[in-house]
Amino acid sequence: MNIDSPKNKDNQFTERFGDYGGRYVPETLIPALEELEKAYLISQNDPEFNSELNDLLNNYVGRPTPMFYARNLTKKIGTAQIFLKREDLAHTGAHKINNALGQALLLKKIGKNRVIAETGAGQHGVATATACAMLDMECAIYMGEEDIKRQAPNVYRMKLLGAEVIPVTTGSKTLKDAINEALRDWVTNVETTHYIIGSAVGPHPYPSIVKGFQKIIGIESRNQILSLTNTLPDYVVACVGGGSNAIGMFSAFLNDDVKLIGVEAAGEGTMTPQHAATISKGRPGILHGAFSYLLQDKDGQVQEAHSISAGLDYPGVGPEHSYLNDTGRVRYVSATDEEALLGFDLLTKTEGIIPALEPSHAMGYLSKFLKKSDKKTKIILLISGRGDKDLDTVATYRGISLKDKL
Amino acid sequence: MKSKITNIIKEQNKKGRIALIPFITAGYPSVEGFINVVKGLVDGGSDVIEIGMPFSDPIAEGPTIQKSSHIAIENGVNIKKSLDLVQKIRSSGINIPIVMMGYINPILSIGVSNFAKLATNVGVNGLIIADIPNEELKQIQISSEKNSLDTIPLISLNSSKKRIELGCKYAQGFIYCISILGVTGSRSSVSLDVKEKVKMVKNFTNIPVGVGFGVSKPSHVKNIKEYADAVIVGSALIDEIAKTKNQPGNTAKKFISNLYKETFK
Fold first, then answer.
1. Cα-Cα-Cα-Cα dihedral sign, residues B171, B172, B177, B181
2. Is A43:A35 a contact under the CB 8 Å cutoff?
3. Does the residue B198 lie in any domain?
4. Which of B88, B90, B98, B39 minimizes the C-alpha distance to B256?
């Protein structure tokens, strides 16, 4: 596997992305962040670490994940050639495993044996619980009570894997509050515990580390599209909650003449208060240790986000996305719950791929956007995860109970 | 020394006393009740008052202060309202130093310099920001320089010598030593490790050192008095206020005067 990244000055390990990022946490966490930064930087030049991680990525996760030319979709839409990067085929069903495994392996080096993590949709929780089961580590997952309800199968998966799932009942009882509780646990148990954050958010060095472990998506995609078509794509499209799948994908194309589009969750619409379109509708602020776009009221209180997709239901966004928005390198748009469900159906019926609700937003946006495109246009769409976890949510939205006869 | 906070703490120390700094969330248990609590705290013998500005995501707080913060927001208290309340306290003739504690986002939202100006105008003497590590204090200090607003750093049990030095470099008023690894909230005992930390801090500075987080009983205060200059008590006070339906001012006064009597008898 070729893991050489294209050279890119905007793509380095850094504390700040323009003004964004930084390290805004209680003093107690600083030693742990410094330790993590040091361990990560050493690991990058440690052949043993890299060969162990590559072996796990190839033989345990199933990398490289395929890039699939979506013939039916291409034909049906008729205005572009669509290639799907299939992170849904990675072990545990989403891209989250790349980062969870990387960070868990890093822990072995640091010598801590207890892992905590937050989860929204449950995918990062499952990935972390999986990595901990395999690497024999103690694991506790913080999950909002609201998310526990809508992601029951993933909750049970985590428990089967040996993780303790701790319900979070504060605030909006979703991802934001799960991160708050994980941070409180970390402040308390910092000497024995590592916090595997699941998205490209949080204080430095997390955004850079998470990108570091997710950039494999972009590197593979770039190689795959070149070998399939001999050219780079015109567009790369990915969904953005915290934005780890998107930053992993985009990082390989930042210096290319490729248009990059990040799709946020517009919930019931960005003209209503019920959305999670952080970059489109927020303004810069500080949450969970980083300066980045944030959904907040005029007093600087953080607002609750809303999305049909638990994984996008977050009022913040990774700091590098804020930077890429302001520089104009990436265009950030949004898709509503309804549009996401259209995307979900479209991919399911035309290609026989049931996507998670998160990338369904990217698909939903794309089906609108493509009306203006032409046949020569080549697009990579990142399918960040599979939809099994969302069947109940989709059914409930449509007034169907899976316990009744369908 | 210019700092009013430093002066008051040192005066107490000269009398062989540790300075008592209670913490209360602005607008808790109600807007009116809060004013009464502050009056009660002053009557009970407090030396400095620390006032929390409520934030939606207070990651350094345990359940008690989280809850008080949430209630305060429900009561319509934001950063400006918190400062209005300080103005009310000042106009009722209360002169003891007041320190505001908060999280960076609401402060950023109205602008750090603007906050410093508004806070100084209403008579705030110091500022603690829970989610600002000590290297970022420099920026806060630059913004509040024109105003006589002390920036108070936090030192943790796991802070290295280098980081203690950094905190001391930007310290004004007093230095806040966190007695535990963890969030705020009453504990049954206070770790002896903090004594060592306070000693280390004192190697770098003459500014008074306060100990807080987890302090809930007179026996804790008595113990801390042996090595520190000030003590901060928050969650235990708020728990007491939460237990009483009426007259939070009396509860606050009783709490502090008991603590005072028990410690100095």
1. negative
2. no
3. yes
4. B39
CB contact under 8 A, B62 and A25: no
Any B CB within 8 A of A380 CB = no
| CA–CA gap between residue A9 and residue B50 (Å, rounded) | 46
Q: What is the domain extent for residue B250?
A: 4-257
The radius of gyration computed from the CA coordinates of chain A, to the nearest angstrom, equals 19
pTM for the complete prediction?
Answer: 0.95
Q: At what angle do helices B235-243 and B248-264 cross, to 10 degrees?
A: 130
**What is the DSSP code (8-state) at residue A404?**
S
What is the domain-level CATH number for residue B192?
Answer: 3.20.20.70
B206-218 residue pLDDT tens: 999 999 999 999 9
Round to whole Å and give the CA distance between A187 and B62: 11
Pick B163's closest partner by Cβ from A30, A177, A187: A30
| CB burial string B29-61: b at 16+ within 10 A, e below | bebebbbbbbbbbbbbbbbbbbbbbbbbbbbbb
Q: How far is CA B169 from CA A195, B128, B152, B153, B223, in A?
A: 30, 15, 11, 9, 27
Q: Residues of B numbered 240-259 whose beta carbons fall under 8 angstroms of chain A's beta carbons: which are they? A: none
Q: How far apart are CA A316 and CA A202, in angstroms?
A: 10
d(CA A127, CA A157): 10
Q: How far is CA A82 from CA A181, A237, B10, in A?
A: 40, 10, 72
Residue B258: count of CB within 10 angstroms of its CB: 14
Dig out the tokens for A345 from the structure.
Answer: 């159906």
Residue B128 lies in a domain: yes
CB neighbours of residue B122 within 10 Å: 18
> B interface mutation test: which of A15, A16, A28 has the most B CBs within 10 A?
A28
Cβ separation B159–A183 shorter than 8 A: no
Report if residue B263 sits inside a domain: no
Residues 6+ away with beta carbon under 8 Å from A235: A258, A259, A260, A261, A377, A378, A379, A380
**Three-state secondary structure readout of B179-247:** CCCCCCCCCCCCCCHHHHHHHHHHCCCCCCEEEECCCCCHHHHHHHHCCCCEEEECHHHHHHHHHCCCC
Rounded Cα distance between B62 and B70, Å, is: 12
**Which of B:165-194 have CB within 8 Å of A?**
167, 178, 181-183
Total number of domains in chain B = 1
Task: Give, for A104, the enclosing helix (H) or strand (E).
Answer: helix A96-110
* B262 found inside a domain: no
Terminal-residue alpha carbon distance, chain B:
30
Q: How far apart (Å, rounded) are the C-alpha atoms in residues A64 and A224?
A: 10
Q: What is the mean pLDDT of each run of 10 residues along chain A (406 residues)?
A: 39 88 95 94 95 97 98 91 98 97 92 93 95 96 91 92 96 90 94 95 97 98 98 98 97 98 97 96 97 97 94 95 98 98 97 98 92 85 95 91 71
